[in-house]
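COURSE: Structural Biology Practicum
ASSIGNMENT: Worksheet 4, Part C
STUDENT ID: 0417
INSTRUCTIONS: Below are two proteins. For each, the amino acid sequence is given first, followed by its structure token string. Answer the questions at the end about the second protein only.

PROTEIN I
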Amino acid sequence: MSAPWSAIGVPIDSVGRAGGTEHAPAAVREHDLPARLGAEDRGDLDVRIHGEERDQATGVIGIADTLATTTAVRAAVRDVVADGRRPLVLGGCCALVPGALAGLRDAVGALGVAYVDGHVDVYDGTTSPSGEGADMPMSVAFGRGPDAWVDVAGGASAAPADVVVLGARDPEEAADIADLRAGTLAALEVLGPDELRARGLGAAGAQAAQRLGAHGRPFWIHLDLDVLDERAMPATDYLMPEGLEWDELAELLAPLGASPGLAGLSLGCLNPEKDPGGTFTERTCALLAGALAGA
């Protein structure tokens, strides 16, 4: 029998201002996501990311708050896993990812990652166009930098060969990281929407689950809602065309969510300020409830 879930809220927005994705944990609770999964709710961590200036040393907006968030998320995830449960990390933005992966690594050792996102998120404090922590979580997870953030995460949490990025399609990011992808991150598999459709969404999810969970290795799912097409999901901050539809995302997540190797999941980039009627928050909760129903 799979371990039960424990929900942890991480109300952050790495833009550096109050609002936006900070409201997402409360919004999904209003739609009973933890209850739908039979999850224990451990409440929100006392974290925020504020301050709109880039730090000179790291290039990251709100670096002190970002590091504090990583420390708090790392400890919370580690504690949930130590209690024999699975973390359901309710963000917030993708800057929560380094702490989540570090906490799982602390608890279990080597891990895999299914990164379901419209972006690869391997900028660092120098290359990021914005300085937002949400640009660079997998750079931190790979131990590439920014150094201060990697240090707080306890070093690298995952190897590129143990990560599959599903749904990335930002052409500007792809151009920016092309040399990196051809070099030190050559082992990182990135499948865009067209490639996922060519394989079949369910088949692609099943292949990722099998690979990431090989030999009993646990893996983490991170879901950034900008993996969805901008017309399908307007309640997120980085809107892009040519993304997945809701039914395609459900098909992709189903085998990942049902895998015995699934050790935890994080949700990022739901902006309730763009969803005043709650329609897209409800669709998100229904999606996750369906994907994790048999987990």
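PROTEIN II
(use this one for the questions)
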Amino acid sequence: MMFGAAQPRIPSPAPAAVPTPEPAARAESPRSPEPALEQPSAIDGMPRPPASEFEGRAEDAAAEASAAEGDEIPDESAREPGTFDRAPPRALLIGVAAGLVLLLAAGGGLIAYRKLGRRAPPAAAVETLSVAQADAEKDSLASIASAEAKARDALEVAGPRARFPEAIAALALIEIQWADALTDQATRIADRNADDPRAAQLQSQAKAKVKAAFDLLSPAAKTNAGSPDIQLGFADYYRAKRLPSSMSRYLKDVKDDPRAMLIEGLALLQEDDGAEKALPKLKAALVASPRSARIHYRIALAHLALKDEASARAEMKETLRLSPQHERAQALLEQLGGAADRK
């Protein structure tokens, strides 16, 4: 051949063996040693990665697997429960429930009060009461009885749900007026005959009338606090009981009312030497009620106590002009010798 004879092949020298480094011992990890990885062959020609890199990856994979399988999570379960982690106490729940019940009850009570609360008396009741008071002004036994019946009618017409302290007080005052009239009669009978049993009977009836007035006023004071009519009723009650300090306590807030003047005048007239002081009070009350036979009769008694028979006789005549059936005025005028010219 033109290129010459074939040259003998010279074999390549074998590559030197690469020593495999031993893995470093891990004293801190209790895990079992990982299985040895295969050594790369010389043909691969690639160096083996360091053992520490493989071990780190294996540990990371194991940690992820443990977390996924629900192994221990450090510090989470060991945390102590806080205030809002505990269930509310039973007493607190009961208290909240009770408060809600009370709130609902209060709301229901307010609604019921607005629907069922006391109302003003009807016009018919007010008119009936006015007639009763007009009868009471006449002051005869028959007119007082009529006034008492009509005052009760006024309360009945108004109904139990009506707020009508005026009618209650008026009825109480009429009961006390009854007591005054009965006491007048008892005194006149006793003056003629101290042993007459009728005097004691009349006095007993008078006490019963005063007690009836108190029985009317006492419950009314609880539902009509501050009513001037109820205060005047109590003042007249204590006047009839001859307790001036209690009477004055109830008159303190209604002293400008003309009816208060009448009560004070009647109280002074009950005293042995009170007629002179009673007259100005009674005359002031008369200005507000000029057609009151009752006031004219009491003024006549005051003049008679002061030995002023002429003035007493004039007042008796005026009493009978306003109330022709006034029995006590008739008897007293006859006693004074003025029966013939009373008209």
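ANSWER KEY EXCERPT:
Q1: The mean pLDDT is 80.
Q2: DSSP finds 13 helices and no strands in the chain.
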